[in-house]
Amino acid sequence: MKTRKIAIDGVASSGKSTIGKILAERLNYEFIDSGFLYRLATLIALEKDLKKGEYSLAVTDFNVDIKDGKIFLDGDEVPLTKLRDKNIDALVSPVSEDSTVREVITKELQRISEEKNVVMVGRDIGSVVLPDAFLKIFLTATLEERASRRFKELILQGVNTTFEEVYENLKMRDIIDSSRSVAPLTIPKDAYVIDTTNLKIDEVITLIMEFIRGKEYALRNSKNYSDSLF
Fold this sequence. Notes:
This protein has nine helices and eight strands.
């Protein structure tokens, strides 16, 4: 079965998950946040008490499925709240940097995308995971705006922090994401770049829907046209 894949990449707190969820609902596609699979691998690493250099053992027999926004491991649902634990927050970056972990999760994401239409978000989706995606989007925003958004989210969640701490954390995260040796954050050459700094959510969705229609129009007029998103 031929499936449609929409890849959304971007810097931290640029709106990837929010935009991705809304777009997936609009198109009736499966929404996949690749970050949760890395968090799942991190959860396994914690449960097995794995140390640096052993993280690849967390993805041995890593059989994952995603359905209606829920994540299943070996057929059992893993609550998303469990994957947001602060202990996972502290370890997910080093686990995600493990080359074997990234290779296994990339293959799982690719397998899932061959089974259903997806809107997939992450930091290397258009460049590594789904290089053949029907549409690639890269979201960005100023560091100040992203820090402001994240700070407000954390305050609403009751987290005791400061804007300065959030700002510095995001700044460091940008450096790590763009400089890591395996699958660094890059803008795919065929991606549409959207600066969300001064845009509302519905304005971003409208832009993406216009891009989809443009791609559809081009496809309709090509010899490779087969079916439509709409």
